[in-house]
Design a protein that fits this description.
With about 270 residues, the chain is an alpha+beta fold. The protein has helices at about 1-20, 35-65, 85-110, 155-160, 255-265; strands at about 120-130, 130-135, 175, 180, 185-195, 200, 205-210, 215-220, 225-235, 245-250. The strands form two sheets. Strands 3-2-1-5-8 form a five-stranded mixed sheet. The relative contact order is 0.14. The protein binds copper (II) ion.
């Protein structure tokens, strides 16, 4: 029986470790400036934790076999344990966790605690059940006012976010269902939610941030690869949560200018 346990535990350990080593189910392509750093940290964490996991499971299997029940086995005796060993592994675990935290804090801070670059493309993101809307401030660089009483979700677009069209600053605001941004330029996001907490998630940008009702959360990232990337909601926000997704199109600066000008022209 001890041998069976050893084989089963080792098999589960090595087969599951194989999928991580072979990267069978791995992260999608990284397409933002911070992606390489995040992926590197992710891989480091997996490597360290993987070694601990394999070592622990291999020992478990080995001891299950070594102390199996057999005729010649000495009778079991009670022991309290080893205080020194407990202190050692608690301290080692603490060093590991605090160390990993410190290593990653600069990546975390780079998109959050530092303000966005002055020339960043500003996009206001509004999450609502079950759709993302994106707003650009237009040539004046100012977002027009929005009012809760003007919100009409069924009308979509500007009405869905309650844009006050009597505010002069709102005249050139562009509201879209697809997010379009120029490549290699920082994107400053202003995240809002209308009803419940949503989470704005772009896997390829390694970007995820909650959008909370009543808050305007500022964050930024820099897309470095042209392409179309999926935007999803990573917070279980209701029955339609599964279909709450959109598209991020990263294009050249010229294409972005043309696209924005065309949206402005549509408004007139
Ligand atoms: Cu949602």
């Amino acid at each position: 029986m001890g041998l069976v346990l050893l084989v089963v535990i080792w098999l589960i350990t090595f087969i599951s470790a194989y999928f991580f080593i072979a990267k069978t189910w791995w992260l999608p392509t990284g397409a933002s400036a911070a992606a390489a750093g995040i992926d590197h940290h992710f891989a480091t964490t997996y490597l360290v934790m993987g070694i601990v996991f394999v070592a622990a499971q291999v020992s478990l299997g080995f001891f299950a076999w070594k102390y199996r029940d057999r005729a010649s086995a000495p009778p079991a005796r009670y022991m309290h344990g080893n205080n020194m060993l407990e202190i050692v592994w608690t301290v080692l675990t603490a060093i590991l966790f605090i160390g990993l935290n410190l290593m990653s804090s600069s990546i975390w801070a780079s998109e959050r605690f530092r303000a966005a670059a002055p020339g960043a493309t500003q996009v206001e993101v509004t999450g609502m059940q079950f759709q993302w809307y994106f707003r650009y401030p237009g040539p004046d660089g100012k977002f027009g006012a929005t009012k809760p009483e003007l919100i009409d979700a069924s009308a979509g677009g500007e009405s869905a976010i309650g844009l006050d069209t009597t505010d002069p600053a709102s005249k050139d605001d562009v509201v879209t269902g697809t997010m379009v941004v120029p490549v290699n330029r920082e994107v400053e996001l202003i995240l809002r939610a209308q009803d419940v907490i949503h989470s704005f998630f772009i896997p390829n940008m390694r970007f995820k941030q909650d959008a909370v009702p009543g808050l305007a959360i500022h964050m930024h990232f820099t897309p470095i690869t042209i392409g179309e990337w999926e935007v999803t909601c990573a917070e279980l926000c209701g029955l339609g949560h599964y279909k709450m997704h959109g598209m991020l199109r990263v294009v050249s600066q010229e294409e972005f200018d043309k696209w924005l000008a065309a949206r402005e022209a549509e408004k007139q």
